[in-house]
Design goal:
Length: 430
């Protein structure tokens, strides 16, 4: 843990240095940011918690560079969280007080707000040479079924899970994981839970379902146990009612030591894990480790990030993509100013590196030297090989997320798994 704390400290220091604008390039103000009128354009930027982009002070330091070079565009910031952010946006839709720019992923910007006609088409941003370097799978996820692009991607990650290595060793459960490859089988997952339960842990793991926050973890857990999927390959239908998923949900329901907990969401599951109350966390990624090591003084055990258990096939991990979208206010000046900001943050390698490092995630184009000599990021980079399909653009995605945690709650309350997944399909496959 001490080594990891040193690695995290170095990572945070580097990210803060870049976020604060301590870059060697000289910043020279440009007289007219949009290129002509000189009238000030005021924009608002709302950011979901994407690493350091969730901190207003950090984002302000990034924006200062943009403001210095574009004095006729002023951007104000509002930070959102995943527990209440969607309600804030929906309320803003009703009142007509939406922001200009928003930093989030395709599951909201494309499958939800884009599909509802609320987002501006930013396809022209993908016509320059630097945009051609974006990974094809990432680029495809940013486009709606109408062929229009509603997200310009900034960063990406692969979500995983984590275990309390100290507890696993003390309980005799360490033998059930492949430490080198960070993989384990479904059979060994069951054995590990049983060993930890016998060791004295009343609650080994939690299938959290108090809301949709962190639901990528529970989805990946269920899908991996017996090789199920959440949606079909064409992203037209949800496949939660498959035999594989039903079998996985039944296993979790019956496994002593695993609790379906309607009091927890992803963030509170992480808190319980880091306080030693759970032996594993299903809501995890590199930013979770960075934030917990920095902010949690009670964290006194070794964290080992892991893939989700599978029945023999290679694990399939849920990916995250984040980028900028523009709400369509039918105002050409504001749209052009917003696109200028996106170009500024992505076109120049130096500025773009600062944006990605602030996220504590990975670039959406090849930048092999971005995290050179960073042991923590090297550790987590091994999970990118298991990146699976980005199915969050399947139609009716917002309903699917709600139906998922509602389904888990009903299973935890005793409803038959077959009946619960049937209701899920009826609600989502319309």
């Amino acid at each position: 843990m001490k080594n990891k704390k040193r690695a995290v400290a170095a990572l945070c220091a580097g990210a803060m240095l870049l976020a604060c604008g301590c870059a060697p390039k000289e910043e020279k103000p440009t007289p007219n940011g949009i290129g002509g009128g000189g009238d000030e354009v005021r924009l608002t930027l709302w950011t979901y918690p994407v690493g350091g982009w969730s901190t207003k002070e950090t984002v302000s330091s990034l924006l200062s560079t943009f403001h210095n070079q574009n004095p006729d565009i002023r951007i104000s910031i509002k930070t959102l969280d995943y527990d209440t952010g969607d309600k804030v946006v929906e309320d803003a839709i009703k009142t007509g007080e939406l922001p200009d720019l928003v930093l989030e992923g395709p599951e909201r910007l494309v499958a939800n707000w884009g599909a509802r006609g609320l987002m501006a088409d930013i396809s022209d941003l993908f016509e320059d040479d630097i945009s051609k370097e974006i990974y094809p799978s990432v680029k495809e996820a940013c486009r709606g079924t109408d062929g229009k692009y509603y997200v310009y991607p900034i960063c990406m990650t692969t979500h995983c899970m984590a275990i309390n290595a100290d507890l696993f060793k003390e309980a005799g459960a360490w033998q059930y994981i492949d430490e080198e490859h960070r993989t384990w089988t479904t059979e060994n997952f069951v054995k590990a839970v049983q060993a930890l339960k016998a060791y004295g842990m009343e609650e080994v793991a939690a299938v959290y379902c108090g809301g949709q926050g962190g639901d990528q973890g529970t989805r990946a857990l269920v899908n991996n146990l017996y090789g199920g999927t959440f949606a079909d390959a064409a992203h037209q239908k949800y496949t939660v009612d498959s035999e594989e998923n039903i079998r996985a949900l039944q296993l979790l329901k019956d496994l002593d030591g695993v609790k379906f907990d309607s009091e927890l969401v992803g963030s509170t599951e992480v808190e319980k894990f880091c306080n030693g109350e759970l032996a594993m966390a299903f809501c995890w990624n590199v930013f979770m480790e960075v934030s917990q090591i920095v902010d949690n003084p009670n964290l006194d055990f070794e964290i080992l990030p892991m893939t989700f258990p599978t029945d023999g096939d290679a694990p399939v991990l849920q990916g995250g993509i984040w980028g900028f979208g523009v709400f369509d206010h039918k105002d050409q000046a504001r749209l052009e100013a917003a696109k200028k900001f996106i170009r500024f943050m992505t076109a120049d390698d130096e500025i773009y590196s600062r944006a990605v490092l602030t996220s504590t995630y990975w670039s959406v184009r090849e930048m092999p030297d971005l995290y050179v000599n960073d042991e923590l990021m090297k550790e987590y980079s091994m999970f990118t090989q298991y990146l699976g399909d980005f199915y969050q653009v399947t139609p009716n995605w917002a309903q699917a997320r709600t139906s998922w945690w509602n389904m888990l709650q009903r299973i935890g309350e005793g409803e038959a798994v077959e009946e619960a997944v049937k209701k899920f399909s009826e609600e989502t496959n319309q």
